[in-house]
Design a protein that fits this description.
Elements (H helix, E strand, L loop, with lengths): L9 E6 L4 H11 L4 E7 L8 H4 L16 H5 L1
Parallel strand pairs: 1-2
Amino acid sequence: MNEMTSTATVRVAIVGSTGYGGVELIRLLQAHPQVEITSVISSSSAGVPISDGFPHLTNIIKRDLDGVDPAEIAR
């Protein structure tokens, strides 16, 4: 099977989710049919809903920001 035609879902953790690049990555990946965002990570805003800082993401992603846990990220 060609890897480019695989329908497997890719699980993604986004580190730096409250930066400009992280927010744009959330927006882009959330719309991708083969991507599951498993964690949005911010060392400075752990435990806060991402929509508190970025209201435009309210209907796009409903989760709290996770803290940095290198072991969890590596999984």
